[in-house]
Write a sequence for this structure.
């Protein structure tokens, strides 16, 4: 997970770039991977009155 913060101001430019093109290249040590960035989904809460 990566959190985009710009000290409380406008979102950082790289976040806007990811929204336009979510395909990313990730390097962890010697491993190179391709991934798709996405925003987290909101958690579902149980329905009221569900039994």
């Amino acid at each position: 997970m990566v959190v985009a913060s710009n000290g409380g101001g406008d979102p950082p430019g790289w976040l806007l770039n990811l929204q336009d093109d979510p395909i990313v290249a990730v390097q962890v040590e010697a491993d190179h991977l391709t991934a798709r960035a996405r925003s987290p989904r909101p958690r579902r809460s149980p329905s009221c009155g569900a039994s």
The chain has a mean pLDDT of 85. The chain has one domain: 1-39. Helices lie at 13-20.
